[in-house]
Structures are given as C-alpha cells and as structure tokens.
Amino acid sequence: MSCPLDQAALDKLKAFTDICKANPNILHHPSLNFFKEFIESYGGTIPPPKMPKSEGETKSTTESESKADEYESDPESDLEIDTEGCIEPDQLVDIEMGGEIKELSEDDTEKAVELRRKAIELFNEGKYEESISTYSEAIKIDPSSALLFAKRGQAYIKLNKPNACIRDCTKALELNPDSAAAFKFRGRAHRLLGEWEKAAHDLRQACKIDFDEQSDEWLKEVTPNAQKIEQHRLKIERRKLEREEREKLERLRKAKEARAKAAKENEQSNSDIPSTGGMPGMGGMPGMGGAGMGDFYKLLQDPEVLASLQDPEVATAFHDISSNPANLIKYQTNPKVMALLAKLSSKMNLGGMGGAFPGGMPGSFPGAGAFNPSQASAPPKSEFQDDNLD
After folding, report:
1. Which domain range does residue 30 map to?
2. What DSSP character marks residue 349?
3. Among candidates 103, 102, 106, 136, which has minimal Cα distance to 118?
4. Quick check: is 62 in a domain?
5. Number of domains in the chain
6. Do 168 and 174 contact (CB within 8 A), yes or no?
7. Hey, which residues does 365 pair with through a beta bridge?
8. How far is it, in rounded angstroms, from Cα 105 to Cα 108?
9. pTM for the whole thing?
10. Run of H or E residues at 71
C-alpha cells in the first residue's frame, strides 16, 4: 500500500513528533486536542503536564543541596517578617556597672534614693543622656539595686541603644530574677533588634510577673512574627528528622542488600563446581551429594589433580565420564585418563567403593563394571589368537 502523504508532509510530521518528544507538554495545548484524542483512541497515554521549574530548580543538584543547607540554617529564609520599627544594633561602650556589693549606710541609701528620683525627673523631661549619667552615679553607690539597672535600660531604649539596654536589664535579672521591669525593657530592646522570639519570651515573663497594659501591647506586637519563626523552625526540625529517617532506612536497605548478596555468593560458592583450569564445565556427578560431593570438589583442587587436568585430552575425558560414568569404558585404553582416575581413587577414601572411581557412583559405573586402579595403565587382553595360517 502506498503512503498517502508526500515526502514534504512526512518531513513535517516527523518534525512535529520530535517536538512532542522534546516537550510532551505541548500535547496539552487546546489546539492539539484532536491529536491527543487520536493517541488515546489507540490505547496510548499522554504524560501529565509538568510545571515549569523555577530559576532555583534549574541549578545543579549540588548547588540545590547547598541552598537547602542554607535554608535549614536560616529559619527566616522564606518567611515574610514585618520588620517595621527595627533599628541597627548599637555599639556597647564602657559604663558604670557597679562594684562589690556591700551593706549600705543610711547616708548612702538616702543618697542613692535621691539620685534615682533625680534620674526619673530627667527622664520625664526627655533628658535621657543626663538621666543615664545620674542612674550611673546611683549604681556606683548601690550596685545591688536591680531597679536602677532596669530603669537605666529604659533610658537607653529612648536613645535607640537596644544592646546597652539588654546589658543593663540582664544585669538587673542577675540581681533579681523576678524583675518585671527588666523583662519588660529587655523584651522591648529585643523587638527593636528584630529578635522576635526573645522579645516574646521576655514580654510574656513581664506580664506573668506584673501585668501592665504597655507590656501586653508590646507582647501582642511581637507575637505574630515570633509564632511564624517558631512554626518555621519546627518545620525545619521535622524535615531534618524526616531526612535522617530516610537516610537511616537507606542505610538499612543497603546493608540488607549487602547481606543478601553475600549470602547468595556464599550459597553459590558452596553449590557451584569449582573451576579446574581449562576443563569444560563438568555438570553433575551422578549419585554424589552432601558431604561426599563437597569433599570430591576439594580433591579437584589438589595440585597433582589440577596438573593432570591441565591436559585438554584428560580434562575432556574427565568431563565426559562425569556426565555419564558409563563412558569410562571408552577411556580404559588411555593411560593418562586412567592414571588420573587411579590418583583420585587413591587420594579419596570413600566407603563402599571397592576401589572404584569415585564415591557417590556406588562402586561401579553402569554398564562398565568395577574399575580397579591397579589396571589403570594396562589395556585389556585381546581375544584374538594367531593360528599361523597366513
């Protein structure tokens, strides 16, 4: 039957099929529904459409794995965090942090109280630098006061120095772990630095110890970002555990395959006939099994036996006899073959053999009679007698 299409049409059809092979998604184009239906009418299937890869997915596997590691190490890598109100961290400078704590005299106590009152007034007037200096004078007198450190931390917040505030409030919490003011102002400082989880923790503690509306308002402000980060970190940890579990299962699978392979090779080495130089595969020895067969195979590795089997004539004859013991009769006039059989019989002590070759072939080969190794090199006598009538 002649083709109904000319060569030009066939070339176009081939070009179209090449395009489909390179990009199967094209078959899902609405204009090619007729071709899709044609393929399916003959039992064919169209591969499902593949989503186009993003720019990151087109990179090499190694680079993708590297990006994955970066992603897992950075809990905010794919989060949308509202950073409005965050500021750049400040550089810490040396300031009075108090000396040795000792019992204060009445005069020192009164002086420290007076300095604290003055510092509060300066703070309320917006004179934050002066307020900090005054708090420092009071701390020098009374370094045991957690409130002085917390209030100086509050003044640092007004100067947009969150790190200085965190240092003071941490010192305050060392002196008094239940200082609500220290938790409150340190939480606010963490918020200014964009440390959302730390901010939420401190402000939650402040509200727990001594609730006030400002602490609660600040806590509500930082909670959404803190929850996003916490959930994202849990997701990263879950992915890590899943990956570790997959790797563990893969290691177990490989170990199981290795054990199965080793067991199979061991079984095969125990059941296969060992190689005997250039001798063809011998097949099975009739009637020889169990330990007797294994001993016989070991005997084939004897240096003297192996030396004899290097002779192709002997190897071929041995293979022939192994395949069918009755074939022994063909080689009774071959001194090399009979010498090998005699050698095997002498080296292998097998019961019930009567000196015949070898073991599981009980005593003699079918149709061959018993073989006596002492006759291995002597050909049988001829029945012909010369009557001198020539």
Report:
1. 7-41
2. -
3. 136
4. no
5. 2
6. no
7. 369
8. 5
9. 0.48
10. helix 61-73
